[in-house]
């Protein structure tokens, strides 16, 4: 999981944001990398259990649907 977390930190913007946020807060890079590893492991487990394919834009699409629903209610 360590190498996959390092690759995610380098190439995935969400993982990079998590890493930078934790490093700026704690100053410990290894602790931040382990947090990214945990996120990846949780995501992998969830995808395995639900048998859903990974969608990189899932969170963005989900946010836009939520904001459209909130606008319709108001």
Account of the protein in words:
There is one protein chain. The protein starts with a helix and ends with a helix. It is built from 4 helices and no strands. Helices cover 84% and strands 0% of the residues. It is mainly α. Helix 1 packs across helix 2.
Helical coverage, percent range: over 70%
Q: How would you state the average pLDDT, rounded?
A: 85
Strand fraction equals: under 5%
SSE order in H/E notation? Answer: HHHH
| Shape field | globular
Q: List the total number of helices.
A: 4
**Spans of 5+ residues with little confidence (pLDDT < 50)?**
none
Radius of gyration: 15 Å
Note the main attributes of this structure.
single chain; 74 residues; mainly alpha; 4 helices
SSE map:
Layout: H1 2-11, H2 13-26, H3 29-50, H4 58-73
Helix pairs in contact: 1-2, 1-3, 2-3
What is the compact description of this entry?
The chain is mostly helical and 74 residues long. It has helices at 2-11, 13-26, 29-50, 58-73. It is globular, with a radius of gyration of 15 Å.
């Amino acid at each position: 999981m360590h190498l996959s977390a390092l690759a995610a930190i380098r190439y995935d913007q969400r993982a990079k944001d998590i890493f930078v946020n934790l490093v700026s807060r704690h100053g410990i890079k290894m602790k931040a990398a382990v947090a990214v590893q945990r996120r990846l492991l949780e995501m992998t487990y969830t995808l395995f259990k639900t048998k859903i394919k990974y969608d990189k834009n899932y969170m963005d699409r989900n946010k836009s649907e939520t904001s459209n629903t909130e606008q319709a209610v108001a």
